[in-house]
Amino acid sequence: MRVVVARVGRALGVKGDLLVDVLTDEPERRLFAGADVHIMGSGRTLRIESERPHGGRLCLHFAGIDDRSAAESLTGSMLEAERAEGERPDDPDEYYDDALVGLEVVTEAGERIGSVTEVLHLPAQDVLAVRATPEAPEILVPFVSEIVPVVDIDASRIVIRPPEGLLEAQEESGESS
C-alpha cells in the first residue's frame, strides 16, 4: 500500500537537488537515503541518494537526477512511499487515512451514524466525512478529541460525542440540496 509523503518543489542548484514539501508526520520512516519513492500516477520509482533539511523544507537528491533540467522535470510531482499492510504510526493518537475509511461511527449512546467515507485535511483541522448509506447526506465530523474521544481500529469503530446541533444541522442541509 502506498501513502503520499511529499510534493516536489523547485530545483536547488545545478546538480539535481530538489526541495520537497513533506506531507507525512513520519519523514524519518519514508524519506531517507536509500529509500525508494514513487511518482504518483507515473509508475516511476526513484531512489533517494541523500537528504538534508533546508529552510524548513527537505532537500533530496535522487539517483540518476544529476542536473537542474532533470530535477525541474519533477517539479510538482507527488511522491508516495510503500507502507506495509497493517502498519500503524508510532504515535498511538495518529492514524493513517485508509485505516479510518470504512470504520463504523457511533455516538457514545450507541446510535449508529454511518461509516467514514473520507478523511479531509482542512487548514484548521482534519474532518471525517461520514455517510449512513451512499445516498444519505454526508456528515462532516471535526476530528478532534473533544468530539471523537474513541478510535478503535481493531474493533472497526469510532465513537463520537457530537456537539448539540452537529448531526441535525448537516442532515437538514443535505435534505435541501
Describe the protein's architecture and organization.
The chain has 177 residues and is mainly beta. It has two domains: 2-82, Beta Barrel (Elongation Factor Tu (Ef-tu), domain 3), CATH 2.40.30; 98-176, Roll (SH3 type barrels). Helix content is 14%, strand content 42%. The protein is built from four helices and twelve strands. The protein has helices at residues 27-30, 68-72, 97-100, 166-176; strands spanning 2-12, 17-22, 36-39, 44-54, 57-62, 78-82, 104-107, 112-121, 126-131, 139-142, 150-152, 157-160. The strands form two sheets. Strands 1-2-5-4-3-6 form a six-stranded antiparallel beta barrel. The protein has a six-stranded mixed sheet with strand order 10-9-8-7-12-11. Strand 1 and strand 2 (17-22) form a beta hairpin. The longest helix is centred in the C-terminal third of the chain and has 11 residues, at 166-176.
